[in-house]
Design a protein that fits this description.
The protein is of the alpha/beta class and 389 residues long. It has two domains: 142 residues, Rossmann fold (3-Layer(aba) Sandwich), CATH 3.40.50.300; 238 residues, Winged helix-like DNA-binding domain superfamily/Winged helix DNA-binding domain (Arc Repressor Mutant, subunit A), CATH 1.10.10. Helices cover 40% and strands 14% of the residues. β2, α3 and β3 form a beta-alpha-beta unit. The mean pLDDT is 92.
Amino acid sequence: MEQLIQKHSRLVERTSTAFRRYMHSRIDWNSRMIGLVGPRGVGKTTLVLQHIKEELCQEKVLYVNMEDFYFSNHRLVELAETLDKLGYRYLFVDEIHRYPDWAKELKLIYDYFPDLHTVFTGSSVLDIRKGVSDLSRRAVMYSMQGLSFREYLELAHSVVIPVHTFEQVLVRDVRTATLDHPLAYFAEYLRQGYYPFQSESGYYEKLRQIMSITIDTDIPLFAQMNYSVAYKLKRLLGIIAQSVPFKPNMSKIGEMVGISRNVVADYITLLEEAGLVAQLHDDTAGIRQLGKVEKVYLDNTNIIYALSAGNANVGNIRETFFNNQLRVVADVMASRQTDFLIDGASFEIAGRKKGNSQIEGLPKAYVVKDDIEYGHDNVLPLWWFGLLY
Protein backbone atom coordinates (compact mmCIF):
# COMPACT_ATOMS: atom_id res chain seq x y z
CA MET A 1 0.00 0.00 0.00
CA GLU A 2 2.93 2.33 0.62
CA GLN A 3 3.76 2.15 -3.09
CA LEU A 4 0.20 3.13 -3.98
CA ILE A 5 0.48 6.18 -1.72
CA GLN A 6 3.79 7.20 -3.32
CA LYS A 7 2.35 6.86 -6.84
CA HIS A 8 -0.70 8.86 -5.78
CA SER A 9 1.48 11.68 -4.42
CA ARG A 10 3.61 11.90 -7.58
CA LEU A 11 0.62 11.98 -9.88
CA VAL A 12 -1.21 14.65 -7.89
CA GLU A 13 1.92 16.81 -7.62
CA ARG A 14 2.48 16.72 -11.39
CA THR A 15 -1.13 17.51 -12.29
CA SER A 16 -1.71 20.98 -13.71
CA THR A 17 -4.77 22.87 -12.51
CA ALA A 18 -4.52 25.70 -15.04
CA PHE A 19 -7.49 24.43 -17.04
CA ARG A 20 -10.56 22.50 -15.90
CA ARG A 21 -13.03 20.57 -18.00
CA TYR A 22 -16.72 21.52 -18.01
CA MET A 23 -17.73 18.38 -16.12
CA HIS A 24 -15.99 19.35 -12.88
CA SER A 25 -18.65 21.92 -11.98
CA ARG A 26 -21.50 19.56 -12.94
CA ILE A 27 -20.54 16.75 -10.57
CA ASP A 28 -22.03 16.67 -7.09
CA TRP A 29 -18.82 15.72 -5.30
CA ASN A 30 -20.70 15.19 -2.02
CA SER A 31 -22.30 11.99 -3.32
CA ARG A 32 -21.02 8.85 -1.59
CA MET A 33 -20.36 7.04 -4.87
CA ILE A 34 -19.72 8.73 -8.22
CA GLY A 35 -19.11 7.14 -11.61
CA LEU A 36 -17.48 9.13 -14.42
CA VAL A 37 -17.53 7.49 -17.84
CA GLY A 38 -16.63 8.55 -21.34
CA PRO A 39 -14.60 7.60 -24.40
CA ARG A 40 -10.86 7.17 -24.16
CA GLY A 41 -8.79 10.33 -24.21
CA VAL A 42 -11.33 12.95 -23.09
CA GLY A 43 -9.55 13.82 -19.81
CA LYS A 44 -11.31 11.91 -17.03
CA THR A 45 -8.13 11.04 -15.12
CA THR A 46 -6.86 14.62 -15.17
CA LEU A 47 -10.22 15.87 -13.93
CA VAL A 48 -10.27 13.66 -10.84
CA LEU A 49 -6.60 14.38 -10.05
CA GLN A 50 -7.31 18.11 -10.26
CA HIS A 51 -10.19 17.69 -7.82
CA ILE A 52 -7.96 15.80 -5.41
CA LYS A 53 -5.22 18.42 -5.63
CA GLU A 54 -7.39 21.49 -5.15
CA GLU A 55 -10.35 20.36 -3.09
CA LEU A 56 -9.34 17.55 -0.72
CA CYS A 57 -7.11 16.94 2.28
CA GLN A 58 -4.24 14.87 0.91
CA GLU A 59 -3.94 12.78 4.07
CA LYS A 60 -7.48 11.43 3.73
CA VAL A 61 -7.58 10.50 0.02
CA LEU A 62 -6.04 7.86 -2.25
CA TYR A 63 -6.05 7.61 -6.04
CA VAL A 64 -5.37 4.19 -7.61
CA ASN A 65 -5.32 2.82 -11.14
CA MET A 66 -6.76 -0.66 -11.51
CA GLU A 67 -4.03 -1.59 -13.98
CA ASP A 68 -1.50 -1.39 -11.14
CA PHE A 69 0.24 -4.70 -10.31
CA TYR A 70 -0.93 -4.27 -6.72
CA PHE A 71 -4.36 -5.55 -7.74
CA SER A 72 -3.01 -8.79 -9.14
CA ASN A 73 -2.69 -9.96 -5.51
CA HIS A 74 -5.12 -7.70 -3.64
CA ARG A 75 -8.84 -7.09 -3.83
CA LEU A 76 -10.29 -3.61 -4.12
CA VAL A 77 -12.69 -4.21 -1.22
CA GLU A 78 -9.72 -5.17 0.99
CA LEU A 79 -7.99 -1.89 0.14
CA ALA A 80 -11.19 -0.01 0.99
CA GLU A 81 -11.38 -1.78 4.36
CA THR A 82 -7.78 -0.79 5.17
CA LEU A 83 -8.40 2.82 4.18
CA ASP A 84 -11.55 2.97 6.28
CA LYS A 85 -9.65 1.71 9.35
CA LEU A 86 -6.94 4.35 8.76
CA GLY A 87 -9.52 7.14 8.65
CA TYR A 88 -9.43 7.80 4.91
CA ARG A 89 -12.54 9.44 3.50
CA TYR A 90 -11.98 9.32 -0.28
CA LEU A 91 -11.02 6.55 -2.69
CA PHE A 92 -10.59 7.37 -6.38
CA VAL A 93 -10.45 4.34 -8.67
CA ASP A 94 -9.33 4.83 -12.29
CA GLU A 95 -9.83 2.36 -15.17
CA ILE A 96 -12.29 0.40 -13.03
CA HIS A 97 -13.37 -1.81 -15.93
CA ARG A 98 -9.91 -3.43 -15.90
CA TYR A 99 -10.81 -5.13 -12.62
CA PRO A 100 -12.90 -8.35 -12.58
CA ASP A 101 -16.22 -8.13 -10.71
CA TRP A 102 -15.69 -4.42 -10.17
CA ALA A 103 -19.42 -3.65 -9.87
CA LYS A 104 -19.96 -6.23 -7.13
CA GLU A 105 -17.01 -4.97 -5.09
CA LEU A 106 -18.05 -1.34 -5.44
CA LYS A 107 -21.46 -2.35 -4.16
CA LEU A 108 -19.83 -4.00 -1.12
CA ILE A 109 -17.69 -0.92 -0.50
CA TYR A 110 -20.78 1.29 -0.57
CA ASP A 111 -22.67 -0.98 1.84
CA TYR A 112 -19.85 -1.83 4.26
CA PHE A 113 -18.01 1.50 4.54
CA PRO A 114 -20.55 4.36 4.73
CA ASP A 115 -17.88 6.92 5.68
CA LEU A 116 -15.78 6.28 2.56
CA HIS A 117 -16.60 8.34 -0.55
CA THR A 118 -15.76 6.47 -3.75
CA VAL A 119 -15.23 7.92 -7.23
CA PHE A 120 -14.58 5.58 -10.15
CA THR A 121 -13.82 6.24 -13.80
CA GLY A 122 -13.85 4.04 -16.86
CA SER A 123 -12.83 4.54 -20.47
CA SER A 124 -14.68 1.49 -21.71
CA VAL A 125 -18.14 3.02 -21.65
CA LEU A 126 -19.62 -0.27 -22.81
CA ASP A 127 -18.43 -2.34 -19.88
CA ILE A 128 -19.16 0.40 -17.35
CA ARG A 129 -22.78 0.68 -18.44
CA LYS A 130 -23.15 -3.07 -18.29
CA GLY A 131 -22.03 -3.10 -14.66
CA VAL A 132 -23.92 -0.03 -13.49
CA SER A 133 -27.10 -2.08 -13.13
CA ASP A 134 -25.50 -3.72 -10.09
CA LEU A 135 -25.00 -0.25 -8.57
CA SER A 136 -28.51 1.08 -8.98
CA ARG A 137 -29.54 3.47 -6.20
CA ARG A 138 -25.89 3.70 -5.12
CA ALA A 139 -23.72 5.32 -7.79
CA VAL A 140 -24.48 8.70 -9.37
CA MET A 141 -23.31 8.44 -12.97
CA TYR A 142 -21.89 11.18 -15.19
CA SER A 143 -20.91 10.95 -18.86
CA MET A 144 -18.15 13.19 -20.21
CA GLN A 145 -17.28 14.05 -23.78
CA GLY A 146 -14.44 15.89 -25.51
CA LEU A 147 -13.65 19.59 -25.58
CA SER A 148 -16.22 22.12 -26.68
CA PHE A 149 -15.03 24.90 -28.96
CA ARG A 150 -15.20 27.21 -25.94
CA GLU A 151 -12.96 24.89 -23.91
CA TYR A 152 -10.54 24.56 -26.81
CA LEU A 153 -10.16 28.35 -27.00
CA GLU A 154 -9.22 28.48 -23.32
CA LEU A 155 -6.89 25.47 -23.36
CA ALA A 156 -5.10 26.15 -26.65
CA HIS A 157 -5.21 29.95 -26.90
CA SER A 158 -5.92 31.25 -23.36
CA VAL A 159 -9.10 32.92 -24.63
CA VAL A 160 -11.69 32.77 -21.85
CA ILE A 161 -15.35 32.95 -22.88
CA PRO A 162 -18.27 32.23 -20.52
CA VAL A 163 -20.56 29.27 -21.03
CA HIS A 164 -23.66 30.30 -22.99
CA THR A 165 -27.10 28.75 -22.74
CA PHE A 166 -28.90 27.39 -25.77
CA GLU A 167 -31.49 30.15 -25.37
CA GLN A 168 -28.80 32.85 -25.38
CA VAL A 169 -27.49 31.63 -28.72
CA LEU A 170 -30.97 31.55 -30.25
CA VAL A 171 -31.62 35.19 -29.32
CA ARG A 172 -28.08 36.20 -30.36
CA ASP A 173 -27.03 37.17 -26.83
CA VAL A 174 -23.46 35.97 -27.40
CA ARG A 175 -20.59 37.57 -25.50
CA THR A 176 -17.22 37.01 -27.16
CA ALA A 177 -15.49 40.38 -26.85
CA THR A 178 -12.19 38.72 -25.96
CA LEU A 179 -12.15 36.68 -29.19
CA ASP A 180 -10.64 37.91 -32.46
CA HIS A 181 -10.66 35.88 -35.69
CA PRO A 182 -13.10 33.19 -34.45
CA LEU A 183 -13.33 31.45 -37.81
CA ALA A 184 -9.60 30.71 -37.94
CA TYR A 185 -9.71 29.18 -34.45
CA PHE A 186 -12.88 27.31 -35.34
CA ALA A 187 -11.22 25.68 -38.36
CA GLU A 188 -8.36 24.56 -36.07
CA TYR A 189 -10.80 23.07 -33.61
CA LEU A 190 -12.72 21.12 -36.22
CA ARG A 191 -9.48 19.51 -37.41
CA GLN A 192 -7.58 19.02 -34.17
CA GLY A 193 -9.28 20.38 -31.06
CA TYR A 194 -11.74 17.89 -29.61
CA TYR A 195 -9.37 15.89 -27.41
CA PRO A 196 -7.31 17.51 -24.59
CA PHE A 197 -4.05 16.15 -26.05
CA GLN A 198 -4.61 18.43 -29.05
CA SER A 199 -1.23 20.19 -28.65
CA GLU A 200 0.83 16.99 -28.65
CA SER A 201 2.72 15.81 -31.73
CA GLY A 202 1.30 12.89 -33.68
CA TYR A 203 -2.26 13.86 -32.81
CA TYR A 204 -4.01 11.84 -35.50
CA GLU A 205 -1.83 8.80 -34.89
CA LYS A 206 -2.76 8.87 -31.20
CA LEU A 207 -6.42 9.30 -32.10
CA ARG A 208 -6.28 6.34 -34.48
CA GLN A 209 -4.62 4.29 -31.74
CA ILE A 210 -7.51 5.13 -29.38
CA MET A 211 -9.99 4.00 -32.01
CA SER A 212 -8.06 0.77 -32.64
CA ILE A 213 -7.90 -0.13 -28.95
CA THR A 214 -11.61 0.58 -28.61
CA ILE A 215 -12.51 -1.65 -31.55
CA ASP A 216 -9.88 -4.38 -31.07
CA THR A 217 -10.24 -4.74 -27.31
CA ASP A 218 -13.08 -2.87 -25.62
CA ILE A 219 -16.01 -3.84 -27.85
CA PRO A 220 -15.19 -7.57 -28.31
CA LEU A 221 -14.48 -7.92 -24.58
CA PHE A 222 -17.76 -6.27 -23.62
CA ALA A 223 -19.93 -8.09 -26.15
CA GLN A 224 -18.11 -11.41 -25.65
CA MET A 225 -17.45 -11.53 -29.37
CA ASN A 226 -14.74 -13.28 -31.32
CA TYR A 227 -11.89 -10.83 -31.90
CA SER A 228 -12.29 -11.33 -35.66
CA VAL A 229 -15.39 -9.14 -35.27
CA ALA A 230 -13.04 -6.17 -34.89
CA TYR A 231 -12.22 -6.31 -38.61
CA LYS A 232 -15.91 -6.04 -39.51
CA LEU A 233 -16.42 -3.19 -37.06
CA LYS A 234 -13.54 -1.32 -38.70
CA ARG A 235 -15.09 -1.95 -42.12
CA LEU A 236 -18.39 -0.56 -40.86
CA LEU A 237 -16.67 2.50 -39.36
CA GLY A 238 -14.90 3.09 -42.68
CA ILE A 239 -18.22 2.99 -44.56
CA ILE A 240 -19.71 5.54 -42.17
CA ALA A 241 -16.61 7.76 -42.51
CA GLN A 242 -16.95 7.89 -46.31
CA SER A 243 -20.63 8.85 -46.28
CA VAL A 244 -22.12 12.34 -46.42
CA PRO A 245 -23.62 11.70 -43.87
CA PHE A 246 -24.39 8.02 -43.50
CA LYS A 247 -28.04 7.03 -44.06
CA PRO A 248 -28.30 3.41 -42.99
CA ASN A 249 -29.53 0.76 -45.43
CA MET A 250 -29.14 -2.34 -43.30
CA SER A 251 -29.28 -4.87 -46.13
CA LYS A 252 -26.72 -3.07 -48.28
CA ILE A 253 -24.40 -2.49 -45.34
CA GLY A 254 -24.66 -6.12 -44.32
CA GLU A 255 -23.52 -7.19 -47.81
CA MET A 256 -20.59 -4.75 -47.79
CA VAL A 257 -19.36 -5.74 -44.32
CA GLY A 258 -20.15 -9.43 -44.59
CA ILE A 259 -22.68 -9.68 -41.78
CA SER A 260 -26.41 -10.30 -41.48
CA ARG A 261 -28.61 -7.22 -41.84
CA ASN A 262 -30.13 -8.14 -38.48
CA VAL A 263 -26.89 -7.43 -36.61
CA VAL A 264 -25.89 -4.25 -38.46
CA ALA A 265 -27.94 -2.12 -36.06
CA ASP A 266 -26.33 -3.87 -33.09
CA TYR A 267 -22.84 -3.17 -34.45
CA ILE A 268 -23.65 0.50 -35.01
CA THR A 269 -24.97 0.76 -31.45
CA LEU A 270 -21.77 -0.82 -30.11
CA LEU A 271 -19.72 1.79 -31.98
CA GLU A 272 -21.95 4.53 -30.57
CA GLU A 273 -21.67 3.28 -26.98
CA ALA A 274 -17.89 3.24 -27.41
CA GLY A 275 -17.85 6.91 -28.45
CA LEU A 276 -16.98 6.44 -32.13
CA VAL A 277 -20.27 7.22 -33.88
CA ALA A 278 -23.55 9.01 -33.09
CA GLN A 279 -27.01 7.99 -34.27
CA LEU A 280 -29.66 10.56 -35.12
CA HIS A 281 -33.23 9.37 -34.59
CA ASP A 282 -36.50 10.82 -35.84
CA ASP A 283 -39.18 12.06 -33.43
CA THR A 284 -41.90 9.53 -34.27
CA ALA A 285 -41.70 7.81 -30.88
CA GLY A 286 -40.47 10.69 -28.75
CA ILE A 287 -37.10 10.96 -27.05
CA ARG A 288 -37.90 8.36 -24.38
CA GLN A 289 -38.65 5.75 -27.03
CA LEU A 290 -36.29 6.68 -29.82
CA GLY A 291 -37.69 6.39 -33.32
CA LYS A 292 -36.09 5.25 -36.54
CA VAL A 293 -32.41 5.99 -37.13
CA GLU A 294 -32.27 8.62 -39.88
CA LYS A 295 -28.53 9.29 -39.99
CA VAL A 296 -25.32 8.01 -38.47
CA TYR A 297 -22.41 10.43 -37.92
CA LEU A 298 -18.91 9.89 -36.71
CA ASP A 299 -18.81 11.01 -33.08
CA ASN A 300 -16.83 14.21 -33.66
CA THR A 301 -15.14 16.13 -36.47
CA ASN A 302 -11.59 15.16 -35.45
CA ILE A 303 -12.41 11.51 -36.16
CA ILE A 304 -13.61 12.57 -39.62
CA TYR A 305 -10.23 14.15 -40.39
CA ALA A 306 -8.36 11.20 -38.90
CA LEU A 307 -10.16 8.77 -41.22
CA SER A 308 -10.82 10.89 -44.32
CA ALA A 309 -7.31 10.82 -45.86
CA GLY A 310 -7.77 14.46 -46.93
CA ASN A 311 -11.25 13.98 -48.39
CA ALA A 312 -13.43 15.25 -45.54
CA ASN A 313 -16.83 16.48 -46.74
CA VAL A 314 -17.59 19.97 -45.47
CA GLY A 315 -21.33 19.38 -45.13
CA ASN A 316 -20.72 16.27 -43.06
CA ILE A 317 -18.27 18.16 -40.85
CA ARG A 318 -20.79 20.92 -40.16
CA GLU A 319 -23.61 18.55 -39.22
CA THR A 320 -21.30 16.37 -37.12
CA PHE A 321 -20.12 19.40 -35.13
CA PHE A 322 -23.65 20.65 -34.51
CA ASN A 323 -24.93 17.26 -33.38
CA ASN A 324 -21.88 16.65 -31.16
CA GLN A 325 -22.03 19.96 -29.30
CA LEU A 326 -25.81 20.19 -28.92
CA ARG A 327 -26.29 16.69 -27.47
CA VAL A 328 -24.61 17.84 -24.24
CA VAL A 329 -27.39 20.31 -23.50
CA ALA A 330 -30.43 19.12 -25.48
CA ASP A 331 -32.20 16.17 -27.11
CA VAL A 332 -31.27 16.31 -30.81
CA MET A 333 -33.53 14.61 -33.36
CA ALA A 334 -33.90 14.46 -37.12
CA SER A 335 -36.28 16.92 -38.77
CA ARG A 336 -38.59 16.10 -41.68
CA GLN A 337 -37.90 19.41 -43.45
CA THR A 338 -34.50 20.54 -42.13
CA ASP A 339 -31.42 18.86 -40.68
CA PHE A 340 -32.23 18.87 -36.96
CA LEU A 341 -35.12 19.31 -34.56
CA ILE A 342 -34.51 20.48 -30.97
CA ASP A 343 -37.31 21.34 -28.54
CA GLY A 344 -39.69 22.11 -31.40
CA ALA A 345 -37.20 24.34 -33.23
CA SER A 346 -35.84 23.40 -36.67
CA PHE A 347 -32.23 23.93 -37.74
CA GLU A 348 -30.79 23.88 -41.25
CA ILE A 349 -26.97 23.64 -41.34
CA ALA A 350 -25.27 25.28 -44.30
CA GLY A 351 -22.54 27.47 -45.73
CA ARG A 352 -22.68 31.25 -45.73
CA LYS A 353 -24.42 31.52 -49.14
CA LYS A 354 -27.41 29.40 -48.11
CA GLY A 355 -30.81 31.12 -48.34
CA ASN A 356 -33.89 30.74 -46.13
CA SER A 357 -36.06 28.71 -48.50
CA GLN A 358 -35.50 25.50 -46.54
CA ILE A 359 -37.20 26.93 -43.43
CA GLU A 360 -40.06 28.83 -45.05
CA GLY A 361 -43.38 28.14 -43.38
CA LEU A 362 -41.84 26.72 -40.22
CA PRO A 363 -42.94 28.55 -37.04
CA LYS A 364 -39.59 28.37 -35.24
CA ALA A 365 -36.65 27.74 -37.50
CA TYR A 366 -33.04 28.84 -37.97
CA VAL A 367 -30.37 28.66 -40.63
CA VAL A 368 -27.04 27.87 -38.97
CA LYS A 369 -24.23 29.03 -41.26
CA ASP A 370 -20.56 28.21 -41.35
CA ASP A 371 -18.03 30.87 -42.37
CA ILE A 372 -19.87 33.83 -40.80
CA GLU A 373 -18.84 35.66 -37.61
CA TYR A 374 -22.12 37.27 -36.58
CA GLY A 375 -25.81 36.39 -36.62
CA HIS A 376 -28.92 38.29 -37.64
CA ASP A 377 -32.65 37.55 -37.53
CA ASN A 378 -32.93 33.76 -37.71
CA VAL A 379 -29.43 33.25 -39.13
CA LEU A 380 -26.89 32.02 -36.58
CA PRO A 381 -23.13 31.32 -36.91
CA LEU A 382 -22.22 27.66 -36.57
CA TRP A 383 -19.32 28.35 -34.21
CA TRP A 384 -21.66 29.91 -31.62
CA PHE A 385 -22.96 26.42 -30.86
CA GLY A 386 -19.53 25.50 -29.56
CA LEU A 387 -19.99 27.81 -26.56
CA LEU A 388 -22.63 25.72 -24.75
CA TYR A 389 -20.41 23.87 -22.26
